[in-house]
Amino acid sequence: MPESVEVKKISDYLWEIPQTGEMRVPGRIYGDRAIINQLTADLSREWSALRQVRNAACLPGIQKFALAMADIHPGYGFPIGGVGAFDMEEGIVTFAGVGYDCNCGVRTMILPLSRAEVEEKKAELADALYRGIPAGLGSHGDFRLTMREIDELLREGARFAISRGYGIETDIEYIEENGCIAGAKPENVSDRAKERQFRQVGSLGSGNHYLEVQYVDEIYDPEAARAYRLELNSVVISIHTGSRALGHQIGTDYLVKLKRASEKYKLPIREQELVGAPIKSPEGQEYLSAVFCGINCAFANRQAIGHLARKCVCQVFGTDADSIRILYDVGHNTAKLERHRVGGREKLLLVHRKGATRAFAAGSPGIPAAYRGVGHPVLVGGTMGTYSFILRGTEKGMEETFGSSVHGAGRLKSRTQALKEFRGERIVGELRTRGIIVRPHSMPGAAEEAPGAYKDVEEVVKVMEGAGVSTRVVRLRPMICVKG
């Protein structure tokens, strides 16, 4: 019989799994009654996000709480939407807290065009983006790299792409970590991982990765919207992808190594992917340096795709490439060293975010100067048939969630379920009647990503705002979606 998990209500939007047994901290879930009821019902399934929150709370060195944002659903070991921060001396780095797609994230770019201008040439732009942005399973980008060049890319991140003519120097200011995280060591990434990436830089890939053209249809926070240079009917391009095959191979390689390390250091292994190593151990440092390589790879990948998207827009509208500005680029599958307050004092922690986005508040270091008065944008993907949102972090979020928030709507149905219930051709046709052009590279892929396979993103965002963790700035409606 499946194991039960007790969940207690703290407030309308916050729930707690009390600390019991081997748990080192309580578990906390941001959700409303409907979200919690769904999670409780899923306890009867083999994969349960609530059990995964409780399991994460048992890991050595975890601080304050094992957290899950409102887009929570089961992942490999850690729930998607999960956040765990670990003490540098006693804590561990765990594979489950990062997953197979290091630094999967979103880049949003602002076009110097209005919604009305884009509508006039929407079909032409959709065709240009479909042809100009490599996407789909095993897709290849423009880059053709040698092993030495791959190593440079893993050390330099987005700067490597810019040095090859993909983008402009001012892009760097609007990328998390300025597009390059320190501590990446390419020698700790296998040749197999590098070989798989030789031709994949500058490609979207498949699954839930996408490129969308969207417009601002509602403004909730005029001050933050002004800081972000967004107006009603502003048009943006959002790119959602990560480190492609290299990140997946890093995960595959280190799953084996971290299993051995878990046994060596006598760490609890409650799920296969919850393996890890003490942060300061040789194994922990090796894995972290490989994760940092994956993070830099993803930054370079989104930089290259952003450049290709600029070219497509310029081709259709005759605009100047420099006039297409990055709003922000932020990851949501990462392990990063950050300073946060614990027990009334500031500590250096290793923060794992698995399907959760950094959401730093106003005044926080490490965010663009133009946004310091309001906090950096939190880019929340919805579905190709509903909405996406841009939020901003709050001081309460800094205290409660280590400056983290949701990254998307969160899946409601598995890919297998979605394929049984939806047909890609029908989804594309229905969205066309609503004025949304979808260009999928795979019709089964479009079915897997049907709007009905996801939670209501408005509900998810409402929870985070109701809890005081992040607040809405603008809502975005889709116009064009290129799917892998």
Describe the structure.
The chain has helices spanning 33-41, 49-56, 115-120, 122-132, 147-156, 158-163, 191-197, 222-227, 244-264, 282-317, 395-401, 415-421, 424-433, 443-448, 457-466, and strands at 8-11, 14-17, 27-30, 66-73, 80-87, 92-94, 105-114, 210-219, 234-241, 276-278, 325-331, 333-342, 345-354, 356-358, 377-380, 388-393, 404-406, 437-440, 470-483. It is α+β, with helices and mostly antiparallel strands and 484 residues long. Strands 7, 8, 9, 11, 15, 16, 18 and 19 form an eight-stranded mixed beta sheet that branches. Helix 9 runs antiparallel to helix 10 (282-317). The longest helix has 36 residues, at 282-317.
Which residues sit in consecutive blocks of at least 5 with pLDDT less than 50? Answer: none
Instruction: Measure the end-to-end span.
Output: 39 Å
What does the overall shape look like? globular
> What class would the helix/strand composition place it in?
alpha+beta
Mean pLDDT level: 94
| Overall helicity | 25-40%
